[in-house]
Amino acid sequence: MTHPTPQPSEEVGQLFRAAFRAHPAGVSIVTAMGLEGAVGLTASSVASVAVDPPTLAFSVTSGRSASHIAAAQTIVVHLVGADQLDLAQAFADPSAERFTASMGWEVLPTGEPLLKDATWALRCEIIHRAPLGGSVLLAARVLDIRPNPTGSAPLVYHNREFHTLFNNVQPAV
Q1: How far is Cα 37 from Cα 157, in angstroms, rounded to an integer?
Q2: Are 138 and 59 in contact, with CB atoms under 8 Å apart?
Q3: What value, to the nearest 5°, has the Cα angle with vertex 131 and ends 128 and 133?
Q4: What are phi and psi of 94, to 5 degrees?
Q5: pTM of the model
Q6: Total Cβ atoms within 10 A of residue 168
Q7: Which whole number is the average pLDDT over 68-81?
Q8: Would you state the pLDDT for residue 143?
Q9: Are 58 and 29 in contact (CB under 8 A)?
């Protein structure tokens, strides 16, 4: 006999959101070429999954950019630094103008949009899609990596605000 899994209470949902607002996450911009041109969004859910083969995962929710990214065969995940705050904010705002000439972007020979100033750009192939609630979890195999030697301190998202890291934490002796 199987028992139905109980649904979390509204309180659990509220505490879940509060817990992850208090947990800093690196900021990335994910881009793809959609049916209507270049699309992109800011993501704080990107995580390393495996080194061999290099694989990452992230989730997307609703919206035009998210649906095109979820359907894409290939994407570019840009790990952005503090000096790309303007890009992170633009790609986080659904009403903001994206892919303007001032953003410093180009289309790779393989067809994906590349933000040239990103600290790291990882060109990936989507290898798995899993619908979960109102989101889609995407796993992607890394095909190519472009480091930017002039990259800055990492940009992180914490408690609904962007921050940068200035100092390393030293272990207690």
Answers
A1: 28
A2: yes
A3: 150
A4: -60, -20
A5: 0.88
A6: 6
A7: 95
A8: 98
A9: no
d(CA 93, CA 145): 26
Instruction: For residues 69-82, give the mean pLDDT.
Output: 95
Rounded CA-CA distance 71/60 in Å is: 11
- Model pLDDT for residues 135-162, shown as the tens digit of each residue: 999 999 999 999 987 767 889 988 888 8
Tokens 């605000």 belong to 161
**How close are the terminal C-alpha atoms of the chain, in Å?**
54
CA–CA gap between residue 135 and residue 64 (Å, rounded): 13
Question: Look-up: residue for tokens 């309180």?
Answer: 11
| Cβ atoms < 10 Å from Cβ of 63 | 12
The answer to whether 121 and 132 have CB atoms below 8 angstroms apart is no
Q: What's the DSSP call for residue 68?
A: H
Tokens for 150?
Answer: 């002039």
In the prediction, which pLDDT does 74 show? 98
